[in-house]
Amino acid sequence: MAQTSAIVSELKRQLRSHGLTYQDVAQALELSEASVKRLFSDKQFSLKRLDQICTLMGMEISDLVRKLAPEPRVEQLTLEQERELVSDARLLLTAVCAMNRWQFDEIHRNYELPETDLIRYLARLDRMGVVELLPGNRIKLLVSHDFTWQPGGPIQRFFETEVQQDFLKCRFTQPGELRLFVSGMLSPQSNESVQQKLKRLALEFRHCHEEDLALPLDQRFGVSLLMAMRPWEIDAFASLRRPEAGKSYPGPTR
Q1: Which of 29, 52, 39, 48 is nearest to 8 (CA)?
Q2: CB 94 within 8 A of CB 32
Q3: Percent of residues in the chain assigned helix, strand, coil, to nearest 5
Q4: Residue 149: CA atoms inside 13 Å, Cβ hemisphere, count?
Q5: What is the rounded CA–CA span in Å between residue 215 and residue 104?
Q6: Whole-model pTM?
Q7: pLDDT > 90 in the chain, percent
Q8: Which of 49, 63, 80, 82 is nearest to 13 (CA)?
Q9: Does 66 score more than 70 pLDDT?
């Protein structure tokens, strides 16, 4: 089953790289789009169906299997590379677009970046190992699914100073917006339990992102999810605490 999942995941990646959608597959297989989505969701492909989809991409099944061989993937940039990204807003924009699987024409069509400048930015990202710039200005992303920014590094500091306040400067009342704020008193055990659930939610967000990469760009929207949790008391309350009533949250057990 693990091998089947790997083949289906690679099949999705190849469809995206060829600019093909579930609707394109449905037309080729003479099925409804809903039926195609079920095929991918259930991972139930006959060899005939698999061969038809590969043919749609100009590939053989053997080509698909060969692509399952692991490739080196970047899991984290160096501090110097992150500093380079935040030093140039256009370079950072290009990197974010590439990490969201945008192709050259999509970036150029949506942002005021001249082709020569965009090529130059992609070449810099190529040197950094973030992407591979292929012939025809095609973009191959080289970061892993587990890619993370440096803890407390330039990108995270950029988020704290430039992005975080802008993100929260919103009433969260429009379609697609949601803000939840709850507070209470939890034991360390309950705190840990909720944090594990939040981590699973973040993983589900990432899975949805990967699934939706098969959709055309005009059907996808940039969405950000901010989750935060910590033992905390507002300064106005904390300043009124008696010194002897202070509490220290227990550290991790060894």
Answers
A1: 39
A2: no
A3: 55, 5, 40
A4: 15
A5: 17
A6: 0.67
A7: 47
A8: 63
A9: yes
CA distance 115 to 94: 12
What DSSP assignment string belongs to 40-108? HHHT---HHHHHHHHHHTT--HHHHHHTTS----B----HHHHHHHHT-HHHHHHHHHHHTT--HHHHH
Q: For 99, list phi and psi in degrees, rounded to 5.
A: -70, -20
Q: Which amino acid, one-letter code, is at 176?
A: G
- By mean pLDDT, which of 16-20, 68-72, 73-77 is the weakest? 68-72
* Local structure of residue 153 (DSSP, 8 states): S
Q: Is the CATH code 1.10.260.40 the one for domain 2-66? A: yes
DSSP state of 140: E
Q: Residue 2: pLDDT band by 50, 70, 90 thresholds?
A: low
State the helix-helix crossing angle for 79-86 and 89-99, rounded to 10 degrees: 110
**Residue in the structure block whose two tokens are 């501090």:** 79
Of 128, 144, 138, the closest CA to residue 85 belongs to 128
Residue 179, phi then psi, degrees to nearest 5: -130, 125
CB 16 within 8 Å of CB 214: yes
CA dihedral over 98, 101, 105, 109, signed as positive or negative: negative
DSSP 161: I
Structure token digits, residue 15 = 């469809």
Q: What is the pLDDT of residue 174?
A: 92
pLDDT in tens, 80-98: 999 999 999 999 999 999 9
151: Cβ–Cβ under 8 A, 6 or more apart, which residues?
none
